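ok trying again, last paste got cut off:
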Amino acid sequence: MKIDEIVIPQKIATHIKNQNYTKDTIGRSHSSVILFDNYVLKIESLSLESKNELILMKWLKGRLPVPEIIAHCEEDGYNFLLMSRLQGDMLYEVDSSIELYVKSLKQLKEIDYRDCPVDNRLEHYLKQAQYNVDNDLVDLDNVNPDTFGPEGFKDSQDLLQWLKDNQPEEELSYSHGDLCMPNILVKNNEIIGYIDLGRGGICDRYRDIALCYRSYLYNTEITEEKLQSKLEQLLDFKLDMEKIRYYILIDELF
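nice, full thing came through this time. structure:
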C-alpha cells in the first residue's frame, strides 16, 4: 500500500487497507495527515517532535481528551502514527470560539505537570530552535511578514540571538505547545479533543496564551485591542504582552 509514493508499513496498512481517504490541508506542519472515516494517519520525518508526540499521547490519556493510538512504527526515516479520529469541528468553525479557547487554556493549566515526561522549558526549546536554524529548517514562507526585513530581524539567527538575550521568567504548567484553533476540536459547544501534541510538555503557560492570541487574530476580524480586553476579562488577569510577543516570535523558528 502506498500513499503519496510512501510505502505504508504492514503494521499500519492492516488497519486501513481498502479504505477511502482524504488529505488534511488545514495544518501548516511538515507532516502528511491522511483522514479515514475512523482513523487519522500522520506521516512525518523522524524528529524529536514526532517522538515527543507519542510519549505525550500516552501520558495524557486520562488527563486530557486526545486520540487513541491504534498503531505506530518507524521505518525508512519516517514516523507512522495511526490514531483514532475525533469527530468534532475545529475551534475556528464555531461561534463561541473565544470562550472555548479560554476554557482550553484553563483546562491545560489544571493538569498536574510534575511527572510530565517531556521538559520543554526555554532551556530546551531554545536548543531545538538553534538546531532548526543551524539546519535550515525554519520555513520562512510561513512567518509573519513583519518578523524579518527592514522593520524586523535581519535573519533567523538574529531572531534566535534576541530570544536568548531576552528570556522571560517562566510560569510553569503543562502546555500544548501549538494551541492554534485547528488543534482544538469541539462538539455541541464542548471541547472533545486536542491534536498535534508533539510540542507539548512542561513550559511557560504563556506559550499557549500567545498562540491563542495569534491564532484568534488570524482566524477572525477582531482587533488586537478588543482581543486583549476580552482575554483579560475571561482569564481574570492582565496579560503580559511582552511575553506574548516573545512566544509568538520563538514559534517562528519551528
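cool. The two ends are 31 Å apart (CA to CA). The chain has eight helices and twelve strands.
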